[in-house]
Structures are given as C-alpha cells and as structure tokens.
Amino acid sequence: MKLQVIYKSIHIMKDKKAVVTGGAGFIGSHIVSELVKRGFEVHVIDNYAGGRREDRVNPKAIYHESDIRYYDEIAPIIKGAEYVFHEAALPRVQFSIENPLETFSVNVDGLVSVLRASHEGGVKRLIYAASSSAYGDQETLPLSEELPAQPKSPYGLQKYIGEMSCRLWSEVYGLSTVSLRYFNVYGSKFDPNGPYALVIGKFLLQKSQGNPLTINGDGTHTRDFTNIRDIVSANMLAMESDNVGKGEVINIGAGRNASVNEVASMIGGPVVHVDPRLEPAHTRADNRKAKKLLGWEPTVKLEDGIAELKKEMGLL
To answer: Does the pTM of the predicted model rise above 0.85?
Structure first.
C-alpha cells in the first residue's frame, strides 16, 4: 500500500509529537482532539476500515492513510514521537468470530508492528487500548485486574494477547507501556452501526427512525457503560503518570453497571425482544487501580451521557 498524507495542518508545534493509530475512529478521534488542544503535533495512522472522515478529522492533525501491519510505512511516522496511543483494531466480538484470521492479523500482528516501530523510534510511552472482553464470564463482580482472563471470543483473546505483548515489550525491550481496559465506551461521534456502544447507539438510531428498540434476550444482562470523556481523561493521565509504564493493565470503567432494559428505559419508546446472542451476562469495573495509579475517576453519569446524546440527535 502506498503511504498517503490525507490532511495536514499549517499550524503545528514542532516540540511535542504524538501518534494515534486508529485516530479516525470513535475513540481515537477524541484522543486526537485532546492532544491537539494540548499543543501536540499529532499524527494519525488509519486505513479507515472502521474510521470515517466526515466528522472525525481534526484539521490541526496530520493524517496518514496506512495499515498498521505495514512496518516500513508506519515506522517513519512513529519515529521521534513522545507518545503513541494504539487505538487501531478490528473490533466487535461477532465479527472476530466470523473472521478470526483477519482480526488476528490486525489486532495481534498490527500491534506487534506498532510496538516494534515505537521501540526502534525512541517513543517515550505507548498507551494501549485494551478491552474488558478479556474477562469473559466471571463468577464475581466487580471485575478486578487480578482475575484471570477468560475471553469468550477471538476478539477478547486478541486484546488479551495485546496486553501481554505490551508487558513483554516493557520487560524485554524497555519500552514504557500501559494497557487500559475499556468498558463499553459511548458518547459523541459514536457510530450507531459501528462496533462501539452497540446498545446505546442502536437504540438511539432506532428511536430517531421511529422504530421500536430491539433487545437481544430478556434485557437483564448488564454492562458498565463509560463515557468517552472519561476514556480520554484516562488516556491523558496514563500518558503523564510516573506510576505506570511497565505493562500495567488498568480497568477504565464507570464502576456501575446498568441492564439493557434500564438503558432502553432511559432512551424511551416501545421495545421488542429478539433471540439472545452469545455474550457475557454482566460486567462492572473495579476501578480502584485506576484511582490509585492514575488518579482517575469517572465523571459522567450514564443518565447524563444519554441525555446529551439524545439532545445531540434532536430526540429531546
């Protein structure tokens, strides 16, 4: 694939450089905007497999259309960066079940390519977007980092391998890394047809179209929904903290779970139940480690976050 610079700012500070893989995606685009605000020269690596350009491109960042698996293309982009935020992935559990080879290639081989480029390029720290899907089904809640990983999908396994890879690169190669296990991220710029915030996003889309809200199963399964602003805050703290950098795994979740039925009630409207799908019954983050190591705490209540999205979509 030929490297192509898509967008380039003319107002760039040259003293601080950061790279965001998957920076045209839902989470990555928010991280890009925050880094730009902080005065970084921000480079984005994205092949737009899961990203989109219409509302996720920051005119003050530099965009490189490339695939993270292509080391020779991404190494020159990463070289000299202080920080790398690795958000690029092929997410969605069901997609990984149907496409295990492709998702392993991107989510595992792609990460190794980024780790190698970061180490050889003199990166100060890599912050890795891990996933609560690594937990799978557990008998106890809240989910703490000390619990053994029990992934139930190729995606969950791939993200767990990513955590172990980051720790290994810290131990063997001396690259400072930290893995943030995200819990069900939702918020502004979500894609209702995309891999994140599936329940909230699809419910809002269905409501906007005047359709009933579709619930898989009986709707009693719960999730720890975490607002994108809190996710970005955690990434910035992980970038700056002197308490991490040796491959630590840290939960980033609100510490409160809500059932799908509760979410449907917050959004409002008629509901219809369809066949259940294979997924963990419950998630809730134990976020004490994030508070201890990063000084991070969630700030956005689910009710307020959903109300903001409803207003954004003209549903209030």
So the answer is: yes
